[in-house]
Amino acid sequence: MAAMEGEHNHNDNKELKPLLVYGPPLVFQLFESNNSHKYHFLKAFSSDLPLLQFLTTQNVEPSSIRAILCNPYQQVTADVIRLLPFLAIIVTTSIGTNHIDLPECHSRAVKVVSIGALFADDVADMAMGLLIDVLCNISAADRYVRNLVPSKLWNLPLGSKLGGKTVGIVGLGRIGGEVAKRLEAFDCRIMYHSRSKKPLVSYPFYSNIVELASNSDVLIRGEIKGAGLDVFENEPNVSRELITMDNVVLSPHAAALTSEFRLFL
Question: What is the 3-state secondary structure (H, E, C) of 191-216?
Answer without folding.
Answer: EEECCCCCCCCCCCECCCHHHHHHCC
